[in-house]
Specification:
heterodimer, A: mainly beta, Immunoglobulin-like, 7-stranded mixed β-sheet, 4-stranded antiparallel β-sheet, B: mainly beta, 6-stranded mixed β-sheet, 0% helix, 57% strand
Chain lengths: 117, 114
């Protein structure tokens, strides 16, 4: 039973399209994240939600819109896809919120590889 | 500014060799946390360890050990008697009291050959 699951695992699409990536965690964690890993393996945080509330928004273009319908789900919608959006997007969760002593002990999903043509 | 440097881009060793992955960090905060994450070829990142800035005691977990040295701002990771299954990209990361987000280094790719 996967702790943090993301769908789809692979996504190939044309520039200008809109796409979504879904994430669900069954760990009972209150905090969820989206990270982007580029082609050079560089990892950077995009968003963090704690109990459905946006905590971190890391200067991501507003074409990216996270949505957290409940604390077990954090979806990522991307409008008007660009070539530079090609990357692996990781969802993660943690038991403790940002700023707490237990923060950033993350359980990651398997990643969603987005290719924009 | 917060920064994590992993100068070793790639390391190759033969099974049973010991290997140390270097990590140097920069922060002006007095309370901070250091992490190591492993990304095996399957792609999923796995948490290995977290240390806070007030605990310089080295830690050992099986074949893994971590050496935290505040004097040199380093948090190095040693794998003893490496195995092929240790092949992965290893990321060092930093967060602090004043910066909630996790700042990752660029990763070190470790290849262990049989």
């Amino acid at each position: 039973d996967t702790a943090v699951s993301q769908t789809p695992k692979y996504l190939v699409t044309q520039m200008g399209n809109d796409k979504s990536i879904k994430c669900e965690q069954n760990l009972g964690h209150d905090t969820m994240y989206w990270y982007k890993q580029d082609s050079k393996k560089f990892l950077k945080i995009m968003f963090s939600y704690n109990n459905k509330e946006l905590i971190i928004n890391e200067t991501v273009p507003n074409r990216f819109s996270p949505k957290s319908p409940d604390k077990a789900h954090l979806n990522l919608h991307i409008n008007s896809l660009e070539l530079g959006d090609s990357a692996v997007y990781f969802c993660a969760s943690s038991q403790d919120p940002p700023g707490s002593s237990g923060a950033n002990v993350l359980t990651f999903g398997a990643g969603s590889r987005l290719t924009v043509l | 500014a917060q920064k994590v440097t992993q100068a070793q881009t790639e390391i190759s060793v033969v099974e049973k060799e010991d290997v140390t992955l270097d990590c140097v960090y920069e922060t002006r905060d007095t309370t901070y946390y250091l992490f190591w994450y492993k990304q095996p070829p399957s792609g999923e990142l796995v948490f290995l360890i977290r240390r806070n800035s007030f605990d310089e005691q080295n830690e050992i977990s099986g074949r893994y050990s971590w050496n935290f040295q505040k004097s040199t701002s380093s948090f190095n990771f040693t794998i003893t008697a490496s195995q092929v299954v240790d092949s992965a990209v290893y990321f060092c990361a930093l967060s602090s009291q004043n910066t909630d987000k996790l700042i990752f280094g660029t990763g070190t790719r470790l290849q262990v050959f049989p």
